[in-house]
């Protein structure tokens, strides 16, 4: 889905027309609750064995060249599926170029990464494993490592039955995809409100929902994931400061090379947003209230008053759902054939 600035402006102009319509009906027209079960994934049938393998791989640091970094390192399931960093620290203490999006509910996004360059979670899983600033490994070495760990062979055979040689890079990605698809957060106060429990939201949260609908925030942040469904310019009305939207990061333009996609990004999901700061692709804003103010001016062309900011922030807090409770796995031991870590010496600290 590609929304042009002109179409987005038209959507914003129609938003206040909802006026005094029933808040619940208006919310149901724009937002959908998180389901209790993950959706079926095309070409990747779910099984308990495959999800379990994905859980183990998600936490296994041996998938990285240094054997220091796991998927959970940047998508910490105890921290809302993110890592609290402006940009994540990867191989050799390098900083990644963008803030790590949450992995929670990511299965409902139209595509993965801020620029949408990965069509699904399986394609997304392959990126960080190989990126030099992240896990800095190669498909061949990952497969070599997993084949050298005796305990993984039966797990791959159970996850991919009938396959002569089940330990492959594609199998790693597919197992990770299925596990990550289970990382849902249903039962947020907003979801209970959508189900008909009007008392699930307090007065300030209901006022924030009304502002969210009336001002047009829902034009980009709608559906099950309250975002994640399309691409939009960051700076529809007013360009954010360079510190927040670095000029050198042109967003989706780097994928499509279309001038219309300069500074266009996939709208992030606002699910659990109160847990997943700092905000924006640059990670430069730590306050959710400040992020709300910036979105008002940059995307909507309005200066939200202090009370409106408080109300919208309260509504966003009501998007925090039940966090997945994942037991940390006991991983199989390596062998003498397991490749050793490829460590980089940390940069020297300057003398005091």
CATH architectural type of the largest domain:
Orthogonal Bundle
How many H/I helical runs? 13
Number of strands: 2
Oligomer: single chain
The CATH superfamily of the largest domain turns out to be: Cytochrome c-like domain
Please characterize this protein's 3D structure.
The chain has helices spanning 5-14, 23-30, 48-59, 71-74, 121-130, 139-147, 152-159, 169-181, 189-194, 203-214, 253-256, 288-300, 306-317, and strands spanning 231-233, 264-266. The protein has 352 residues and is an all-alpha fold. It folds into 2 domains: 25-36 and 186-317, Cytochrome Bc1 Complex, Chain D, domain 2; 48-181, Cytochrome Bc1 Complex, Chain D, domain 2 (Orthogonal Bundle), CATH 1.10.760.10. The protein has a two-stranded antiparallel sheet. The chain is globular.
Topology overview:
Elements: H1 5-14, H2 23-30, H3 48-59, H4 71-74, H5 121-130, H6 139-147, H7 152-159, H8 169-181, H9 189-194, H10 203-214, E1 231-233, H11 253-256, E2 264-266, H12 288-300, H13 306-317
Antiparallel strand pairs: 1-2
Tag the structure with descriptive keywords.
352 residues; mainly alpha; Cytochrome Bc1 Complex, Chain D, domain 2; 2 domains; two-stranded antiparallel ribbon; 13 helices; 2 strands; 34% helix; 2% strand; globular
Short summary of the structure?
The protein has 352 residues and is mainly alpha-helical. It has helices at 5-14, 23-30, 48-59, 71-74, 121-130, 139-147, 152-159, 169-181, 189-194, 203-214, 253-256, 288-300, 306-317, and strands spanning 231-233, 264-266.
């Amino acid at each position: 889905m590609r929304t042009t600035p002109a179409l987005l402006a038209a959507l914003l102009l129609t938003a206040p027309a909802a006026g005094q319509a029933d808040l619940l009906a208006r919310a149901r027209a724009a937002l959908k609750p998180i389901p209790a079960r993950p959706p079926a994934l095309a070409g990747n049938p779910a099984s308990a064995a495959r999800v379990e393998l994905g859980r183990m791989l998600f936490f296994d640091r041996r998938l990285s060249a240094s054997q220091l970094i796991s998927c959970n390192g940047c998508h910490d399931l105890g921290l809302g599926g993110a890592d609290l960093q402006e940009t994540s620290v990867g191989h050799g203490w390098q900083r990644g170029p963008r803030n790590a999006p949450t992995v929670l509910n990511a299965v409902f996004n139209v595509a993965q990464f801020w620029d949408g360059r990965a069509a699904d979670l399986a394609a997304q899983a392959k990126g960080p494993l190989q990126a030099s600033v992240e896990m800095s490994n190669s498909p061949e070495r990952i497969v070599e490592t997993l084949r050298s760990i005796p305990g993984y062979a039966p797990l791959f055979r159970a996850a991919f039955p009938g396959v002569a040689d089940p330990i492959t890079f594609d199998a790693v990605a597919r197992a990770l995809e299925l596990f990550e698809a289970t990382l849902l957060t249903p039962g947020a106060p907003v979801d209970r409100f959508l189900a008909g429990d009007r008392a699930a939201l307090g007065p300030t949260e209901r006022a924030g929902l009304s502002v969210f609908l009336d001002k047009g925030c829902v034009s980009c942040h709608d559906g099950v994931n309250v975002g994640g469904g399309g691409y939009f310019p960051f700076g529809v009305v007013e360009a954010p400061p360079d510190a927040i939207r670095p000029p050198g990061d042109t967003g989706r333009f780097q994928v499509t090379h279309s001038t219309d996609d300069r500074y266009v990004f996939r709208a992030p999901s606002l699910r659990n947003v109160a847990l997943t700061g700092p905000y924006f692709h640059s990670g430069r804003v730590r306050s959710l209230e400040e992020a709300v103010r910036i979105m008002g001016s940059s995307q909507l062309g309005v200066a939200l008053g202090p009370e409106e900011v408080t109300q919208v922030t309260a509504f966003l807090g009501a998007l925090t759902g039940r966090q997945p409770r994942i037991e940390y796995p006991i991983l199989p031991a390596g062998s003498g054939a397991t490749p050793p870590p490829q460590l980089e010496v940390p940069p020297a600290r300057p003398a005091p």
